[in-house]
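Q: My labmate handed me this sequence with no annotations at all. I'd like to see what the chain might look like in three dimensions before we decide whether it's worth expressing. Could you predict it?
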Amino acid sequence: MKYIFFIVFIFWSTISLQAQSDYPIKIDDIQIRDPFIFRNDKDQHYYLFANIKPDSLQNSGVQCYRSQNLQDWSLPQAVFDAGAVSWADPQHLVWAPEVHYYRGKYYLFCTLTNEEQKLEQIGGRPPVVKRASVILKADELLGPYLPFEQEEIVALSDWMTLDGTLYLENGKSYMVFCHEWVQTTDGTMEVIPLSKDLSKAKGPAKTLFRASEAPWTRPWLNYKGVKTEGSVTDGAWLFKDSKDRLLMTWSSFSEQGYAVGLAISDSGKVYGPWRQKATPLLTDGNGHGCIFETFEGELFFVCHSPNSQQAKAIFYNVTENEDGITLTLSI
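A: Here is what I predict for the chain of 331 residues:
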């Protein structure tokens, strides 16, 4: 009997060691801002998309970690090189990568920048530079993600835009994105209709709301040490609740620092009208997240905290209520 026990022990030890070697990284060891989780039903894994910090040997880009349990992750694999986009600075960090499966292909939404390309400057304001939320495509989840042949910027090319996300409604596709506060002073949340292949806009952008419309937001009073006032819109994520309301988590700054707020479209439509919850869902450096459903059917919200280069992915349980949702710290 003891020999059987020994064989079983060796078998499970081998399985455990194999699992450790496949997923050697703990979630707490991954520095990440704007985390995005893609649940892949095809292989029963979660995919965490993050930016790649550039150096003398590599460009900026996007990489992906893989996990079965949200705690233990694989080594990252590069899926996008910012050098693939002709106008982007490959040494500037890629912001807010997220991936969507749509009509048989995978689409990467992310924000690219080139600070050497100046747009029309505004007196007394920070530099207005080329920054755009772009859409790239791939045949496989792990890329490589490449631009469309025409490399079109979906929103207006003279706008500074960021943090684009895909939303589908009644068979139509839209990009919800932010118009940068640097250019507008009062940052806005915008929506623009997309073509069926997501390669270009199919109509004008429409403002959904301004940052200052949320009672909890507070303007920045300086930017990179320069006295400059402006209200931020960041990181929209949209989802329907059980009452058929369309909810949007988004981020800005509150009296308690970087925060997550909630906007509600009671019509259930992306064009709103949108109303703001009076108080933020999270404060103290939590921000820019997304909601996803686990393989066990639980709703999680993942965001980064603190709001610094040392940020990590933080998970919260999502619970619906009459006022929208509540977020409770989870794993």
